[in-house]
Amino acid sequence: MSRTILELHLLQTVPPSNLNRDDTGAPKSAIYGGVPRARVSSQSWKRATRLAFDQLLDPSELGTRTKRVAEFVGYRIRQLDSSIEEAESLRLAAETVRAATGVKVEPPKRKATSAQEGREKDPAPESSYLLFLSAGQRDGLARLAVEARADSTAFFKAKENKARAKEIANTRHSVDIALFGRMVADSADINVDAAAQVAHAISVHRVENESDYYTAVDDRKSRREGDLEESGEEDRGAGMIGTVEFNSATLYRFAALDADALARNLGTGLREDEPPTGPVRRAVEAFVEGFITSLPTGKLNTFGNHTLPDAVLVKLRSSRPISFVSAFEEPTQEETGTGNMRQACEKLAAYVPEIERAYGVEDDAQTWVLRVGKNTEALEGLGTSVSLPELVSAAGEAVAARQQPEAGQEPEA
After folding, report:
1. Which pLDDT tens digit goes with each residue over 216-228?
2. Distance (Å, whole) CA 389 – CA 204
3. Angle between helices 135-147 and 159-169 (to 10 degrees)
4. What are the pLDDT digits (tens) for 81-95?
5. 96 and 141 in contact (C-beta within 8 Å)?
6. What pTM was computed for the model?
7. SS (H, E, C) 23-89
């Protein structure tokens, strides 16, 4: 059976930086090909991509992942019915979310104890773990909570009302939920399998972390330098000292998007006045642009490492996704003096046709290439050269065309 798989392969150089820290504060790393590499976790880049959606999609198409789900839904309840006070809205929201997801939503014990002792106000209920709800699901649950206001306990004891709550939590998924999935441990039937897979980004070359020793000057003390000389004080040291670890790397980034799964997760649409393929096209375009242009924010103020990928290869296949990370199992060699980007592009340009020919999939993929500068010239013949806006539009259009229902076929709800 033919599938619709979109692959993104990126090469991106970052100067001294610490995009993604481990538990000691050092940049994450991995051993690959027998040598240490710089690594940025998939979780880190997925979050950066989700944040990029804020600039690419309407808020109504996005979700919120939070433990403060009672505040999230309760705020909407008060918007729907201004006669409902905050405390009541939080209680109604907690009961409704509990009915919909099976997750306990109650005040955190430590804060509740503190409130009982009078040290702080009564805390809002929270879920026991992060819950991911779309804007549509939040609004639906809020409306149901208002309907249940008269006797919410009895209301949610009725099977049909509990089923309605669960249905609301399991339909009208936002783009980010449809792409990255949702796990609800207490109610597996409302889990959402992710349509997108993101690999840990790794450097194409050996990387050793370095350490930056820094000092911070106490402005007031330095301005009194003359006074200190007169008074004989000898405290001329820095106001603060420390170290921060960093590395610089040329990263290979890879993501694969199952457009069929994405279409199933999204259903026929978040809006009723558009073609059935409208949601999946918007989601694909947002994912392509968001993944390419996003950047984890770890230590960004310290290093200012705002770069964009020099090379992007996007492929649309009918079979399984293929990562090209094996092209870099043997790391690029620093001693050539040509930099890592040029060598990485040459390795990728040699590897892609070879593996596709070996597995008989060379004619299966539609390919676009976005590249910058002479170092990426080796990639020129691998596909159609495009700019980012052209790439985003072409990928969205191609996926939508393949998702178009055939004549006489009902779109999947």
Report:
1. 888 877 666 556 5
2. 27
3. 160
4. 999 999 999 999 999
5. yes
6. 0.91
7. CCCCECEEEECCEEEEEECHHHHHHHHHHHHHHCCCHHHCEEEECCHHHHHHHHHHHHCCCCCHHHH
